[in-house]
Amino acid sequence: MGKKVYCLQPENTAVHFNSSIASQIELITHNQSMVIVKTHAGSAQLVARLIDFDPDPSILGTVGGNDTVLIIPKSVEEIDLCELAVRRRLGVF
């Protein structure tokens, strides 16, 4: 008898979303070292995934919790550009 195996298919299609994702965002801000996106409860991992799927070169990576996404910039000297890239990606200005 064969083994049961769980396998995820690779993602090769673009993630599309409409402006409703902006309705999940409460705040986008930054300090000297990272950008923070505050979301409604349960939305942070989706938001992080949207940022990670097609990242801007100014973004090194994200960590999504329940209602907060931490975005790590590639360079802290360009933190303003990183926040702007996040705002553009999420459609929040």
UniProtKB/TrEMBL annotation:
Q: Does the keyword Nucleus apply?
A: no
GO BP annotations of the record are: L-arginine biosynthetic process; protein complex oligomerization; regulation of arginine biosynthetic process
Arginine repressor C-terminal domain residues are 27-79
The record, for Gene3D superfamilies, names:
3.30.1360.40
Q: Which family does it belong to?
A: Belongs to the ArgR family.
Function summary: Regulates arginine biosynthesis genes.
**Listed PANTHER family:** ARGININE REPRESSOR
Name of the protein in question: Arginine repressor
**Species, as recorded:** Vibrio ishigakensis
* Highest classification ranks of the organism: Bacteria, Pseudomonadati, Pseudomonadota, Gammaproteobacteria, Vibrionales
